[in-house]
Design a protein that fits this description.
Layout (H helix, E strand, L loop, with lengths): L3 E5 L42 H14 L4 E4 L8 H9 L6 E6 L6 H15 L3 E5 L5 H6 L6 H20 L3 E4 L4 E5 L3 H4 L5 E5 L3 H10 L2 E5 L3 H17 L5 E11 L2 H13 L3 H8 L6 H7 L13 E3 L2 E2 L2 H4 L6 E5 H13 L4 E5 L3 H12 L7 H8 L1
Parallel strand pairs: 1-2, 1-13, 2-3, 3-4, 4-7, 7-8, 8-9, 9-12, 9-13
Antiparallel strand pairs: 5-6, 10-11, 11-12
Amino acid sequence: MTIDFYWRLPTHGCHGSIRHSAYDRGDWSPLGAHNVAPGLDRYGEDDGFRYIDHLAEIAKAAESAGFIGGLIPSFPNTDDPWVISPLLARETSSFRFMIAFQPGFLNPVHAARMAASLQRATGGRTVFNIITGGGGPAQLWWGDSFSHDDRYGRTTEFLDVFKGVWRGGGFSYDGRFYQVADGGLSPLLAAEEIPEIWFSGSSDAALQSASKHADYYLSWLEPFDQLTDKFARVKERTAALGREQKCAVRVDLVARATEKEAWRDIRAGFENLTEERRAQGRGGPTDSVGAARQQALKPSEARRYDELIIAPNLWGGFNLLRGGPALGIVGSYEQCAAKLDELIARGTDAFILAGTPHLEEAYRIGEEVLPLLGRQAEALLHAAE
């Protein structure tokens, strides 16, 4: 079985180290002597190296290190993935671009034409991460006031139409959210392959939509038994519709030559936290079931880094060190590989990995961890001792 590995491209800036929380790689922080993209030249002036140039370096590093593609996140504070993707495609050869977006903000017919055009321009390197939003103030930022279940209903209809117009002319649809009469792409565009769809969401409404349309069901890392149960429910729902669906995990790693080194970096990052950063880590109101499951780990309440070790080599405070999910993997190269192998044994078919800083860690994970996968866990852990 082939396992696909994607890397994460930080469209919101990046930290220079897991040990501190400053976004010093990108123009989301004030321009300074130690910043990357943009930084200062020897005369103290803007050096002209834009953040898109830095993202291109990360994409090229991940491609050379063996990753099949990269997730391009979408948040209110990021550049737009639809714009970033074609720019980075020109900098790489076979690297796929996983565009994260909320379907409700685009017309599905127009989105199909955009996606087919991008497939044609890049040689079929487009992948979608369909997200439906966490509700609350963050969702209202987008001007979207639909309730949780309505958003997933809208997503289902969006994908009905998106696929329908792509597959042939004369497509008509009369739904609650979308109506189309005799729609379809031009034959040249319709000949392109529909992008692979990765789908996120942990609620029953999300699983219902995913079972109908997703090629991959994507989850943040959760305690392994909990994740195994979720994957089983997804595959059961999909099988009932006569489809097969793969499952994927999005997870950060701190992988070092020894376990001691890995925990040393985690401890340093935790001890450098400010109260402001702790408050941000608590998050805001949300109706996202997945986010609530992460918040249940309560990382912002911990006063020692080791209070957040929830299982061997699993740490629940990553969202304090950078935005995103709380739970991640920490350990030696061999221990990290063993954890990924365990997830594969529990039904994971693909991964979106990340590390801080994203450029250097793409090389480290690609060169030191991925080659160890598939070996006997006992041999890996023995080598780590």
